Amino acid sequence: MTVHVVHRRDGAERRLVSRGEYVTDLGSRVGGLVRLAASGDHALVFEFDSVGDHRASTVLTPLALDVVWTTGGRVTRVARLPKWTGTARGTGDAVFEFSRGVADDVEAGDELFVRQSHSSRSTE
Fold first, then answer.
1. 121 pLDDT band (50/70/90 cuts)?
2. Has residue 52 been placed in a domain?
3. What angle do CA 11, 110, 82 make, to 5 degrees?
4. Which domain holds residue 95?
5. How far apart are CA 8 and CA 73, in angstroms?
6. Alpha-carbon distance 88 to 67, whole Å?
7. Does residue 12 sit within a domain?
8. Is the distance from CB of 8 to CB of 110 less than 8 angstroms?
9. Within a domain: residue 123?
10. Residue 69: HSE in the Cβ half-sphere, 13 Å Cα cutoff
11. Tally of structural domains, the chain
């Protein structure tokens, strides 16, 4: 399933990235980081069963990231992490990781959510 990430503020929507992927384990995280490095039009999505404190890091990672925490789709925190040394904590039931600069216009209180993409090759 292909998904994209949408940003909403004051009723206006815009697509942040055309390709998002859910991270479920270490393998999908590593593969996702490789795809994120190759394309700024990509996001990693981490979903959790409940709201909690979640850490993001670029330690030992050659990528600078924008990280967004949400609760019920509402942005609770945005952090910009430098490559190799960045760490941040936030509260939410989802965490989004983007290439640096993708979430420059995203602020706490905005909405961020995943929407399923419809492929032209779909058999629906």
1. very low
2. yes
3. 140
4. 2-117
5. 10
6. 9
7. yes
8. yes
9. no
10. 19
11. 1
Token pair, residue 98, equals: 């983007």
d(Cα 26, Cα 42) in Å, to the nearest integer? 18
- Indicate which CATH number applies to the domain containing 62: 2.60.120.1140
Assess if residue 122 is contained within a domain: no
Determine how many CB atoms are found less than 10 A away from the CB of residue 14: 9
Strand ranges inside the chain, DSSP E: 3-9, 12-22, 42-57, 65-71, 74-81, 87-99, 111-116
**Could you give the count of Cα atoms lying within 13 Å of 72 in the half-sphere of its Cβ?**
1
* Run of H or E residues at 36: helix 26-38
The pLDDT tens digits of the residues spanning 86-95 come to: 999 999 999 9
On whether the pTM is more than 0.85, the answer is yes
Q: What is the mean pLDDT of the chain?
A: 91
